[in-house]
Write a structure and sequence with these properties.
about 260 residues; mainly alpha; about 85% helix; flat
Length: about 260
Amino acid sequence: MSDLRREALRHAMPWLVLAALLIVWEICCIVFQVPEIILPRPTKIFAVFVQRFDILMAYSWDTLWTTMIGFLLAIAFGLLLGLAVGASPFIYSGLYPLLIAFNAIPKVAIVPILMIWVGVGSLPAVITAFVISFFPIVVNVATGLATIEPEMRDVLRSLGATRLEILTKVGIPRAMPYLFASLKVAITLAFIGSVISETVGGNNGIGFLMLSASARNDAPTTFAGLFAIAIMGVAMYAVCAMVEKRMTRWAFRGEIVA
């Protein structure tokens, strides 16, 4: 197989696997006569998706912008806190156990509290998306700073570099691949946080639409909402991956040479 065909096949594999999965799903529903209320066929879901496209787009837009606001806030605060935790052993010792304890709390348990504090609406979804995607960014940035070898620090100090210069010229570039790796995880978690909040106590968004559809036993619309969330998640993951290759091209030098 030539390199061109191998590359084309590699790009086509996700679509081929998805098509195979949908075909198997469709056949199983027909052969085993699965009731639509339990598991609708993909063709029925697609038909509902097209029929109610405007409604799905409107509710998906609500979920997308609340997710992106929470995600951007998580990047800003996570990057700053990650730099502080990674640069100072005292901050690490003081904050890291608290971060682990907070991350262990199920985020669905926070939503009712947020509803009491800020009411029902988009703000709880933004906060939940921020909270659930914040931790991976902090941990990965701090880990990236921790990869600086002590010998390199000693050499830089002997050359007259200050602690701030070591952080900005060596530490932050070294942490960039870790940051973008965490962003690809955090964006999917942000969608989970938004949908959880919309499902538990929202009045808009795709989670609210799915909850309303499930209350009417409308399984195709519920699954169409799941597909919409999946599409948005994959799209934002792809955006993060493209930005990662753009910003940390040196980390992919082996792939580029190949």
